Amino acid sequence: NLTRILDCADRLFRHYGYGKTNVADIARSKRFYGEVFGWQFTDYGVAYTEFDDGRLKGGFVADAQVRAHGGPLVILYCADLADAERRVVAAGGEVVQA
Questions:
Q1: What is the DSSP string of 2-53?
Q2: How many whole angstroms separate alpha carbon 36 and alpha carbon 19?
Q3: What is the DSSP letter of 71?
Q4: Helix (H) or strand (E) segment spanning residue 57
Q5: Distance of alpha carbon 21 from its chain centroid, rounded?
Q6: Which of 7-16, 62-71, 73-82 has the lowest mean pLDDT?
Q7: Which of 43, 48, 49, 96 is least enclosed, having the fewest CB within 10 Å?
C-alpha cells in the first residue's frame, strides 16, 4: 500500500550514509575501534581505511590535519555502558564526559 511505500522511501532517504573522520594514526584508530566495538576494516592505500560494523560504514583518513576541537560530534550506542567503558579504557581510551 502507499503508506508502506512512503515509509520505506522515508527510511531510505533519511539515514546516515557515510562519514569520514580525520585521524592522526590509522593503525592506532583501527586497533582501538576494532577492540572496543568489533569493527572490521578494509584498507584503501596507506591514508584511508573503511570501517564496517555490519550496519554502518564510514572511513578514517590520515591525509588531512586532525583538529582537537570543532570536529563532528559522533555518538555511539551500546547496551552495556559499564562494559563499553571497560573496553574503551583497556584499548587505551579515556572517558572524558560520562
A1: HHHHHHHHHHHHSS---EEEE-S-HHHHHHHHHHHH--EEEE-SSSEEEEE-
A2: 19
A3: S
A4: strand 57-61
A5: 8
A6: 7-16
A7: 96
Other Cβ atoms less than 10 A from the Cβ of 55: the count is 6
Residue 71 in grid coordinates: 570536529
What the block records as the C-alpha cell of 70 is: 570543532
3-state secondary structure of 60: strand
- 58, 67, 52: which is closest to 22 by C-alpha? 67
Amino acid at 79: A
State how beta strands 40-43 and 48-52 pair.
antiparallel
- pTM listed for this prediction: 0.67
Return the SS3 of 96. Answer: coil
Looking at 8-12, 67-71, 90-94, which range is the least confident one?
8-12
